[in-house]
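Dear support,

I submitted the protein below through the web form. The confirmation email said the job was done, but the results page showed an empty box. After a refresh the structure appeared. I'm attaching both so you can tell me whether what I see now is the final result or a partial one.
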Amino acid sequence: MLREVLYLTVGAAKRAEKMVDSFVEEGRKELEEKSLLELSKEHIEKRKEEFKGMFIDDFKKITEDLGFATKDDIRELKEMIKRN
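What the results page shows now:
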C-alpha cells in the first residue's frame, strides 16, 4: 500500500511538472508571438512611412510636370500684388 501511495505521489508530481512545463511553454510562445507582433507593427509602420514619402515625392513631381502653382508661387504672387 505504501508503494502504491508512493507511485501515486510520484505520478502526481510528474503530471504537475508537465503542467508547469506546459504553462511555461505557452507563456514563452505568447511572448514570442507578442514580440513578432511588435516587430510586424514596427515593420508595417516603417513601410508605411516609406510609401508615404514615395507618394509625396511622386505627387510633387506630377504637380510640377502639370505646372500647378506651389505655395511658394502663390506667396510670391501675393507679395507682388501687395507691392503694386
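Response: this is the final, complete result; the empty box was a page-load delay. Residues 2-83 form one domain.
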